[in-house]
Design brief:
heterodimer; A: 114 residues; mainly beta; B: 109 residues; six-stranded mixed beta sheet; five-stranded antiparallel beta sheet; 11 strands; 0% helix
């Protein structure tokens, strides 16, 4: 079955540690996105990528980093520079290009800093 | 800057019709989409409007007016399972996919 997979579902991190969230898709989509969602809030764009080996900052990129070495994979690293990392992180993919706003989401990773 | 405005919360009765509005301001515009998200879950795509007018998909319809930078999602024959958050989203000229802050719909018996 085609889809987008995020792992792990729950993640606990100690303050000062970096942590990497996985996102893999087998939909053959060019575009991939990372969003952060805080309780009762909307989705805020962290990073996005329209093609392999290229990505752009979203609205809240500070304290995060990404890579896009393969079409299928778009991992997100939450660095120690992110001051308030506890949140629900959602990865999405789409065909890409102008005009296509049908995105498919993974089930999310809930990150908690302890 | 870019922004999307939606009401924060809407309440309606089972079987009724509800409209959720969205106004947007973006640099370039490539369509308005709507997503549904149940508590604890991931957003799922509902509909997309690239051109002005009404798009109908079962009980859900979505409308767009590009001249007014405005759209809405219409939910008919409301069911309890429709209680969820609904987000509008736009694609802009830099290929970002930007979401609104969401509207929490509560359907009462």
């Amino acid at each position: 079955d085609g889809g987008i997979t995020q792992s792990p579902k729950y993640l606990f991190r100690k303050e000062g540690q970096n942590v990497t969230l996985s996102c893999e898709q087998n939909l053959n989509h060019d575009a991939m996105y990372w969003y952060r969602q805080d309780p009762g809030q909307g989705l805020r764009l962290i990073y996005y990528s329209q093609i392999v080996n290229d990505f752009q900052k979203g609205d809240i990129a500070e304290g995060y980093s990404v890579s896009r070495e393969k079409k299928e994979s778009f991992p997100l690293t939450v660095t120690s520079a992110q001051k308030n990392p506890t949140a629900f992180y959602l990865c999405a993919s789409s065909i890409g290009g102008a005009g296509n706003t049908e995105a498919f989401f993974g089930q999310g990773t809930r990150l908690t800093v302890v | 800057g870019q922004s999307l405005e939606q009401p924060s919360e809407v309440t309606a009765v089972e079987g009724a019709i509800v409209q959720i509005n969205c106004t947007y301001q973006t640099s370039g515009f490539y369509g308005l989409s709507w997503y549904q998200q149940h508590d604890g879950g991931a957003p799922t795509f509902l509909s997309y409007n690239a051109l002005d007018g009404l798009e109908e998909t079962g009980r859900f319809s979505s409308f767009l007016s590009r001249s007014d930078s405005y759209g809405y999602l219409l939910l008919q024959e409301l069911q309890m399972k429709d209680s969820a958050s609904y987000f509008c989203a736009v694609g802009d000229s830099s290929y970002k996919l930007i979401f609104g802050s969401g509207t929490r719909l509560l359907v009462r018996p």
